[in-house]
What does this fold into?
Amino acid sequence: MDSLQNIFTLIAHQGFNVSTLVCIDQFTNDILNGRTNLTRFNLQEHAGLCSADSVLIGAYTIACYARASLETSSDVATSQASPTNWEIDAKQEELVQQWAEKKGCWFPNFESLSISAFGPKIAQGAEAIVFYKTGDTSVVKERTSIYATLGRAFEAIVLHNTLFPETQMKVIGFTRDSDGLFRTILTQPYVECERLATKEEIDNMVAAKGFRDNHDGQGVNYVGDRLYLEDMHPANVFIDKVSAKPICNDCIVKFI
It folds into this structure.
């Protein structure tokens, strides 16, 4: 925690200069090597954090600073209301972009680069655009946030990796699309779909992970002791052609 506070102090006083970047890199390496942790995540979730790799860890650290700096400002100015999710999200996007540009993982022209580098677009939904080059073992996703803040979207990647290691997401960078939307660029194992999973198959899969239907009438949302699962419909869960088991390639995951 002292290391994290040191990073917060460096960002506040020096911005993203060389010393700050080195400190963030060291903190990231300490997490990857098991020398430190983030209290937000339990031991199993830390494995999900590490599998998302160093870019996600660094960006999540910046997002945590952005939230903390706004909340501290509100505490100091007692007449000021707590920051809204919109304010937190805007600040997180701003600072993560500044850090990513310095770090070399900001791709300003990703849309023009993606097809030649990663293959044609094979799918597009509300949250992600998916690119795939025939023969590759992974797809590349350009993923926008449908969460309250960018930090929560980063947490969702960690939690997805924790629950569904067979389709772990690895963050490689960030961009803004032609509409100005902040997007996270990540890779994910390519899984060949045999067919869409049934409701019963999805129920059984998440039950084995400690979740139950929340009975909201939609049939696609589940609750556990610590987490919510949403949007678990067949387009996001299908039967893997190789293993013949249900595979979740995307869903909404949140802390309770």
